[in-house]
Design goal:
The complex is a heterotrimer of chains A (282), B (311) and C (343). Chain B is 72% helix and 1% strand. Chain B is mostly helical and 311 residues long. In chain C, helix 2 links the parallel strand 1 and strand 2. Classes of the chains: A mainly alpha (282), B mainly alpha (311), C alpha/beta (343).
Chain lengths: 282, 311, 343
């Protein structure tokens, strides 16, 4: 047919719109990343990684305690979330039809949707008030709660992906269900489960709100789980809303480190997921 | 069933039970810690407009308004773009570009909220302020655009929320579109459809999943705290104007929680947390229901569900 | 494990130990929270004090005066800090006697950002009250113009910036405005968190300073040092004697002169709108709060020692940071009051 009909023009416009949408989404991404990079790189030096915060008006100072704090908080959160998440996932995949499994899945989905600030309020009431102490443990609790649903769902999905032949083979050899799962199925799904854990880590490493009233913040270097602890997110927030130029610079540096950590985790997880997808498709 | 199997079932079931317990505990704890406020205000809390810590008079309405308004606006901005991205990446994209583009759009989701907030204060707000100042007088008279050009306000909040919501909605929508059987599209092409028309029929087929994806983005926007509180102006007054500084439930909790100097104040804030919890519960349940009703046709879960799990 | 792994582990462990050097087995860790108003000075103090006592780590977080009172009452921190003294209800709610100890004097100043106006504006309590009540809405309003003859004020809208968090700075500000305007007192009242008739909220002194410096036409209130550090213009305020005074070390100290002669036993006194010449009317003490009978005696001993240091050595850091040192009469009374803390 000669010329373009209205329908064809409409179609081209639509395609152009979709392509444009992708470009449009990439604009803020580029802006934010470039901005963080350009501002943060200036303040990034050895002193930043090794030094502790200094009082107002004094130059220098760093966020060593905040970096360690973030690592410690994510570590504490993982300690709690990995057992609960993985084992829940095992249950819901092994006994997928049972009522409990449906309930667990529903609870996990619900938990996934709870805003982080609400979890912070919960952790305050449960882990801070009764002990009259802000602590890294309380912060770890809040972050751990957020990780659980992500790990649980990933574990479940991946365990279901493992070919039943593997499970049946183990059972045929006389293994108990537990044996079969722990020695055959889980190891087969392990890379994917690790991916899920890494994804969960990426998610919580960037959280600020729940830490505001659990781990509080700490000027000093501390690895005591029962004491308040610094974290990159809270420290960046505190510095960002201050009127001091030096603190602003450090806030950007902190943001850069934070973004790098989170992006690295996300990239690792995505790469691993792609590889698993390719394997799953055979 | 052997005894060891029983132990296995009980053992893993126990951890699953823990998960359920945590959710229940959150609901219970929130209710317990808002007891004073619930007793004093009852259901009127949900529609009272006053937030007066001095007089001890509290109401959630301005915050509910702020949360819902900003989230709805964000959805309006984000949904067309997110769906456009989903369509492009699943239907139109040349295979070589697909991986990197998917990766890049999902990168948006990885940027921490506080970093968006920083960018918001230093880049977005001044830009929005300039935009607001440049609004023609005629438009200014409309309630939608009334008020001084501050930069901080509903518009900035909506924009930042939209940016944060796009990757979630688009990644779920992408998955949903992939589950639409090829036969559907092939039939459309066989009947002489243009690309647009074929995709439109696919979208229609996947409509409940798409709506689910949109609702998921909505749920995400409802709970967002840090980025919003840094650009919304923190003023507990419900207003139609995009320029007006307003307040959201998550923001007021973040700002005032550690400082609530008396029990009633603290309980009122916790009750706002409870209200937020209930609203996100409803929205997320609805969205899961819709996605599930769509996904029932395909049985085998995929490893890429990990991407959905992150949503 | 192989040698490289062993060496790496050893280096890592050593690194952690080195970084944690400072805290010895005897480290006393004390947590405090409260006002943002004195935060620049306190952060300096805790740092300087640490030089004399390296085994002490005082971790202070500035979450606002309301927060300080709250967390102290909940006993999640050892001490609180506030610029607005605790009310009788709050003291009763704390269930145990709390001691207010003034540490330094500070001032709250009106900061503003008017395009093309670099002059120092003069304000009166009445005018400020009306602005914060939303009654005066434009910069070229007659009332403001009358106080500032010779300054050409634009017809821009005034954007009021206040605190979104519970704050002692707010307390001092509304205390002054309530004394200047009965309408303000009855409409808004005096507290660390009030219901503002108009305006936007910034978090902390920092947030307000930030908002004002960015939004043209805005007017806010911050502790003096924040105005200086953010390079925002601040104006003078009319005192009871009718003079227009800018906040300086002298004008703030002058405000405390009358109060120091009649200091109440619990040190809870407001010195806003103080009488006298050369007085800056929006001045205030700021207090540290301690339980009289704290549970942790080791921490109590440290904090008493710290207070003695702060009241003597510490005072010399006040001036350079924009605060005014305490009058000697008040210091004497406090050193006596310190004995009330049971160690």
């Amino acid at each position: 047919m000669k010329g373009r009909t209205r329908r064809q023009i409409l179609s081209s416009l639509f395609v152009a719109f979709c392509g444009g949408a992708v470009l449009l989404a990439l604009v803020p991404l580029a802006l934010v990343l470039l901005f963080v990079l350009s501002q943060g790189i200036q303040a990034l030096n050895v002193g930043f990684f090794l030094g502790l915060p200094k009082p107002v008006g004094e130059d220098g100072g760093g966020m060593a305690n905040a970096i360690i704090g973030t690592l410690m908080l994510t570590g504490l959160g993982s300690l709690m979330a990995i057992p609960i998440g993985v084992l829940s996932g095992v249950y819901t995949s092994e006994y997928a039809g049972s009522r409990l499994a449906s309930l667990i899945r529903f609870a996990a989905d619900t938990l996934n949707g709870v805003p982080s600030i609400v979890i912070g309020v919960f952790a305050y009431g449960v882990a801070v008030l009764p002990f009259q102490q802000f602590s890294a443990l309380a912060g770890g609790l809040a972050l751990g709660i957020m990780m659980i649903p992500i790990i649980a769902r990933t574990t479940e999905e991946l365990l279901l992906l493992v070919p039943t032949t593997m499970r049946e083979g183990a059972l045929a050899l006389g293994a108990t269900r537990a044996r079969a799962v722990f020695t055959v199925v889980l190891p087969a799904a392990a890379p994917g489960i690790v991916t899920g854990i890494v994804l969960a880590l990426a998610r919580i490493a960037g959280e600020t709100a729940p830490l505001l009233f659990t781990s509080f913040n700490n000027r000093f270097f501390s690895i005591d789980p029962t004491e308040p602890i610094s974290s990159l997110t809270v420290q960046v927030f505190t510095y960002a809303i201050a009127p001091y130029e030096d603190w602003h610079r450090q806030a950007w540096a902190g943001a850069l480190v934070l973004v790098s950590i989170v992006l690295l985790c996300s990239m690792l997880a995505r790469v691993a997921t792609r590889r698993l997808e390719r394997l799953a498709r055979g | 069933m052997g005894r060891k199997d029983l132990v296995f079932r009980a053992g893993t079931g126990f951890f699953g039970l823990l998960l359920i317990l945590i959710v229940a505990a959150i609901a219970v704890e929130l209710t317990r810690q808002s007891a004073l406020s619930i007793q004093k205000f009852g259901l009127a809390f949900w529609r009272t407009e006053i937030w007066d810590p001095v007089a001890g008079d509290f109401g959630a309405w301005p915050f509910m308004w702020g949360t819902l308004y900003s989230s709805v606006l964000a959805l309006m901005l984000a949904t067309p773009i997110a769906l456009g991205i989903a369509v492009f990446l699943s239907e139109l994209c040349p295979a070589s570009l697909r991986q990197p583009l998917v990766f890049l759009t999902e990168l948006l989701a990885a940027i921490p909220s506080i970093v968006y907030g920083l960018w918001g204060i230093f880049v977005l707000v001044p830009a929005v302020r300039a935009l607001e100042a440049a609004t023609p007088e005629a438009l200014r008279r409309l309630p939608l655009f009334s008020g001084p050009p501050l930069g901080v306000g509903m518009l900035s909040a909506a924009v930042i929320l939209a940016v944060m919501v796009i990757p979630f909605t688009s990644s779920v929508a992408r998955e949903v579109l992939r589950s639409v059987p090829m036969a559907q599209r092939e039939a459309a092409y066989a009947l002489g459809a243009t690309r647009f028309e074929a995709i439109r029929s696919a979208l229609f087929y996947a409509r409940s999943g798409i709506v689910g994806a949109v609702m998921l983005g909505f749920g995400r926007a409802l709970g967002e705290t840090m980025a919003v509180t840094m650009v919304i102006g923190n003023n507990p007054q419900a207003s139609l104007s995009l320029f007006a500084p307003q307040y959201t439930m998550a923001a007021v909790i973040a700002n005032e929680f550690t400082e609530a100097a008396d029990d009633l104040y603290l309980h009122a804030l916790t009750e706002i947390g409870l209200v937020l919890f209930i609203i996100t519960l409803v929205v997320n349940s609805l969205s899961r229901l819709l996605i599930w009703s769509m996904g029932r046709s395909r049985r085998a879960p995929r490893a890429s569900a990990a991407g959905e799990a992150a949503a | 494990m192989n040698l490289v792994r062993q060496q790496t582990t050893a280096v890592a462990v050593a690194g952690v130990l080195v970084m944690s050097a400072g805290p010895t087995a005897q480290t006393v860790r004390i947590n405090g929270a409260g006002a943002t108003f004195p935060y620049p000075l306190y952060s300096k103090w805790f740092d300087e004090y640490r030089k004399t006592r390296p085994d002490v780590q005082i971790n202070y977080q500035s979450i606002g005066s309301g927060g300080g009172i709250r967390q102290l009452t909940n006993q999640t921190v050892f001490f609180g800090a506030t610029d607005g003294p605790m009310t009788d209800e709050q003291l009763t709610a704390a269930k145990a006697p709390i001691l207010h100890l003034p540490t330094v004097l500070g001032a709250v100043v009106p900061v503003y950002n008017i395009p093309n106006v670099k002059a120092e504006l003069r304000f009166s309590g009445q005018v400020l009250a009306d602005i914060f009540l939303g009654r005066i809405t434009k910069w070229n309003d007659g009332a403001i113009a009358k106080l500032n003859p010779g300054v050409s004020l634009p017809a821009t809208d005034i954007t009021v910036v206040h605190r979104s968090d519970g704050s002692g700075t707010t307390y001092i500000w509304v205390d002054f405005l309530s004394k200047s305007s009965p309408a303000f007192k009855s409409t808004v009242g005096v507290s660390t968190a009030v219901k503002w008739p108009t305006g936007v909220g910034g978090k902390g002194n920092e947030g307000v300073a930030g908002l004002v410096s960015q939004a043209p036409g805005s007017l806010g209130y911050v502790e003096l040092i924040y105005a200086v550090q953010s390079r925002t213009t601040y104006g003078s305020v009319q005192n009871q004697a009718g003079e227009f005074i800018k906040a300086t070390e002298q004008s703030v100290t002058a405000a405390a002169a009358a109060a120091s002669r009649q200091m109440p036993a619990d040190f809870r006194v407001s010195i806003t709108n103080a009488p006298g010449k050369g007085v800056y009317p929006v001045s205030s003490f700021t207090w540290l709060l301690f339980f009289e009978n704290p549970k942790d005696k080791a921490q109590a001993r440290v904090m008493v020692d710290f207070m003695k240091w702060a009241l003597s050595e510490g005072q010399k850091f006040a001036g350079p940071l924009g605060y005014a040192p305490l009058p000697p009469e008040v210091v004497k009374l406090e050193l006596a009051a310190l004995a009330r803390i049971r160690m």
